[in-house]
Amino acid sequence: MIRISIAAGLLSAAALAGAQQPAPPPAFAASNLSPMGVRALASNCAACHGTNGRPAPGSTLEGLAGKPKNELAMAMNQFRAGKKPATLMHQISKGYTEAEIDALADYFSRQPR
Ligand code: HEC
Questions:
Q1: Which residue, judged by its Cα, is nearest atom 9 of ligand 1?
Q2: N or C: less crowded end of the chain, CB within 10 Å?
Q3: Burial of 24 per CB tally in 10 Å (0-12, 13-18, 19+)
Q4: Which of 48, 70, 100 to mutate to test the pocket of ligand 1 (most atoms within 8 A of CB)?
Q5: Which residue owns the Cα nearest ligand 1 atom 2?
Q6: How many helices (H) and strands (E) does the chain have?
Q7: pLDDT tens sequence across 27-68
Q8: In this structure, are residues 113 and 99 in contact, taking their beta carbons and an 8 Å threshold?
Q9: Nearest CA to ligand 1 atom 1
Q10: Ligand 1 centre distance from Cα of residue 57 (Å)
């Protein structure tokens, strides 16, 4: 019984200490900017923009394939800064570093339309 109450006391002390700590930063995976890593990043865009940036027939979304790299990077950076109107690209663009955006823009600009 004593052991249980000591354990409970320790647990609540730990919980209190935990409550006062600031939340740890989220653990993002390190960037993988190898060709396969960038391809994996680009696959995150496929659900909406189509495989390799070519939208499915009849899709109302913009294709990304074959667009100039600077145009793609600029759009992503403007979304990220909240300067370009968007429904969901604001959130999506914030999930990528500048280097990742640059690599994604480069990747999609090289894809055939
Ligand atoms: C859940 C769907 C979805 C995903 C996933 C998605 N997008 Fe988008 N994207 C959109 C929509 C919708 C728009 C139009 C702007 C808006 O409403 O947010 C857009 C617009 C864009 C534009 C601007 C196109 C133009 O010329 O106006 C770019 C560039 C872009 N997305 C890049 C990406 C990249 C790169 C990824 C992957 C990292 C990605 N998107 C993932 C839905 C998505």
A1: 89
A2: N
A3: exposed
A4: 48
A5: 48
A6: 6, 0
A7: 777 899 999 999 999 999 999 999 999 999 999 998 999 999
A8: no
A9: 48
A10: 17
11 C-alpha vs ligand 1 centroid, how far in Å?
46
Q: 79 alpha carbon to ligand 1 midpoint, in Å?
A: 9
In the chain, what are the domains?
33-113 (1.10.760.10)
3 state SS of 99: helix
Q: What is the mean pLDDT of residues 74-95?
A: 96
CA distance linking residue 18 with residue 61, whole number of Å:
45
> In this structure, are residues 93 and 101 in contact, taking their beta carbons and an 8 Å threshold?
yes
- Ligand 1 centroid to Cα of residue 24, in Å, is 30
Position in ligand 1 atom list of the atom nearest CA 90: 18
What is residue 97's three-state secondary structure?
coil
